[in-house]
Each structure stands twice: as structure tokens, then as C-alpha cells.
Specification:
Elements (H helix, E strand, L loop, with lengths): L12 H15 L5 H10 L3 E2 L5 E2 L19 H10 L4 H7 L2 E7 L5 H9 L6 E7 L3 H6 L10 H14 L16 E6 L3 H8 L4 E6 L13 H8 L2 E9 L4 H9 L3 E4 L9 E4 L11 H9 L15 H15 L11 H4 L10 H13 L8 H7 L7 H16 L1
Parallel strand pairs: 3-4, 3-6, 4-5, 6-7
Antiparallel strand pairs: 1-2, 7-9, 8-9
Helix pairs in contact: 1-2, 3-5, 9-10, 10-11, 11-16, 15-16
The structure holds S-adenosylmethionine.
S-adenosylmethionine binds next to α5.
Amino acid sequence: MSDDTHSRLELLEQNKMLIHELFQLEQDGHKDARELYHDEIAGFFIRTDDGSYTLTSDKRDSHDCETLHSKYGAFSESYEKFVKPSNLLEIANNKKSIRVLDICSGIGYNVTALLTYLKDEDVEIEIDMVESSIETLATSLFIPDVSKVYGYVKKEVESYLIEHGYLTFNKVLCNVPSNIHINIHVCDAREFIKNEANGKYDAVFLDPYSPSKSPELYTIDFFSRIKEFLEEYALILTYTAASPVRSALVHAGYQIGQGPSFHRSGGTIASLSEDMIATPLTFSDEKVIALSDVGVPYIDPDLNDDYETIINRRQSTRKKIRAVSVFPSSSKLPRYLGLDPETIEDEHLRDKLNSYVIKMGFESINDYRIHDILNVDADLSSSNQILALEDNLHRILG
Ligand SMILES: C[S@@+](CC[C@H](N)C(=O)[O-])C[C@H]1O[C@@H](n2cnc3c(N)ncnc32)[C@H](O)[C@@H]1O
């Protein structure tokens, strides 16, 4: 796997450089290096609506920078989208020990929210934190405490940085309770899954940047490999509702449903077990994923392609099959399939939608063969409805 940092999106370059200056100063024996650098590093903090902080990513080609968390509340988002829907409280009540995989740990808010949530539980908690950016982990040492428990994460981060020669001095004054075991892995999450993961997890937090910027962690191949390390009842939780991500999960063999929403649109929950999915997707979302080019998933066969390769591969597949073997996603066409065109008041839109399907050999969006495609058993799970829609589409289009 290329270790070129461009293959991953990480922290703003200026933030990284400052952290490396700090490392050097501590390595040179300056006991007050952290105090000296505190204000300058704090200059990168962005206060979010619930008073917790976030940071910002570097640029990715023509894309804007992206914050690590929701601006509506970084810590609240961790609670609402990852921790509360994870079922880990119920699992902790029924087991002596739980294991969680935290992919893209960033500044450790998801882990802090989880440990805060489980603080009264009599259970052994083991968490594998996987984060590629050593600078992001180091920046967490400067972020104001969001909860008393944040000290545990900071203590473990500091110990890791000292053990690996980045820092020299023990400054975080906190004892981690003996039932909490945090393992820090600084590497590409694909590397962790290929070479380091073992045993079974009770839940996975999947929190990369958005799919168009960190596609390597949303591929069919990455999700397929994670399956080996999941308990049957475990959930994978992610904040994104993007169609290629949901499609990749379905094609990797997961059952999927909607995650809770927190200001931004709702996320996605996946499990090997159908019984664990509380809220199915809407049929409208299923149609977009199964029948249009937006549903083309990201692919990374050996889990080591770079960003451009993964993005370009999906783009070229979309181009090839769009309006040939899948419907184009333009003007939200998949959502209108099967409707009586006369019910669409906007005449221009109605003509446009019809013209897309006419080019593919149908008479209108209400063609009887389109109804055949949409005819799937409503009692099936969302994943199975998506697969059935795809089968119907391929059968009808030959
Ligand atoms: C949205 S932030 C995660 C925030 C984090 N979960 C928290 O609680 O603070 C995404 C993180 O993923 C890291 N990252 C990006 N690509 C990665 C990769 N391929 N493997 C592991 N970490 C990656 C970035 O450095 C960044 O810290």
C-alpha cells in the first residue's frame, strides 16, 4: 500500500507541521513545549454548537476542506449517531466483556462518548482505535475536556506517543480504570483490517471523511473483510447515507437500515443479522441504490489502491452503464419511476424524465415493464429488496 499521505485525507498541513515542531521540542528535552505551543495549536480548534471542538481537514483536489465532526455539535454527534444506536449498553448488560472497533478515531470523541455512556457498567471494555494521523491524535491532548472520561483517551494517546518516541514527558494526570483497555493503532484502517485485526467485535464505529474524499474506507472489499471480525449481532454504524456506501454494504453481504439523524441527514446501520436492523430504508432510497448509476459502489480489490484509482474506477463504470443497464440518476429519475406522468405538474420535468427512459427503450416512466422492475416483495429486508430490484432490472433489460 502506498504510504504517500496523499492517498488519505488527513489534518490541515499547517496543523500537522506545528505538531511536528512540538514533537521535536519535547524530544530535545523542553519540558514546557506543550504549554509553549498550546495557544498556537488551539488556533486550529473550531467550536461547535454544543461547546465541543472540532478540527478541519486538508484540501482534497477541488473539494473544500471538511471538518472532522458536525458543526452542530461534535460530541453530541458522537452520542447520537454512533454510541446510542450501537446497542452496546444492552450488550454490556449481557456479557462480561465487550470489544469495539473505532475506525478513524480522530480526536477520540466517539470513544469518549462510548466510555461516558458505559461508565456505570460492570464490564471489561476493549477498544481498538485506528487512526492514520499521528498528528490528529497528538492534537487531542490540547482539546478541552468534553467529559471527565476524555482524560482516559488522552492518557492512552500520550502513552502511545511516548512509547513510540514522539513525546518525552508524562503530563496527562489521569488514571485509566482497570476495566478499560484502549489499543491505539496508527495506520491506514485497511492495513489494520488486513494484518492486525483479530477476534470478534461487538460494534464498529465507521467515521471517515465523506465518501467522495475517503472512498478507500467505503468499498465493497473493505466491508467484506470486516465481516470476518464481527459478531453476528454486531452493528457497523456510520453517519453517511450516501448511496454508493449503502450499495457497497449490500453487495458485501450486510443487512442495512437507516441510522438516526443528527441535523445532517440520517446515517446508515449495517449488520450480518436482519433482526438487528430496526429501521429499514425507504423504498425511494432503495430504488436509487438499485436502479441508478449513483448506486455504483467503490471497489478496491486488494485494499491498497490510491484515492484517484478508486474514484476513477467508479466514475468510468458509471459512465459505461448509465442509461444502458441502469437508469440515469439525473433529475432524481429513480424516485419517479412507476408514477403516472400526469401527476407530475411540472411539464418540463415530466418531459425530461420520460425522455430519459424512452432513450432506454421504455414508453414512459409508467411503462408496464418499469412496474415489473419495481415489483418486489414488500416484506423483504431493505438489502434483499435492493438485490431483487437489481435482478428485475437486469432481467427486463436483458
Ligand atoms: C471524520 S474524522 C473522525 C473523527 C473521530 N471519529 C472522532 O471521534 O474524533 C476522520 C479521521 O479519519 C482519519 N483517516 C483518514 N483516512 C484514513 C484511513 N485510510 N485510515 C485510517 N484513518 C484515516 C483522518 O486522519 C481523520 O482523523
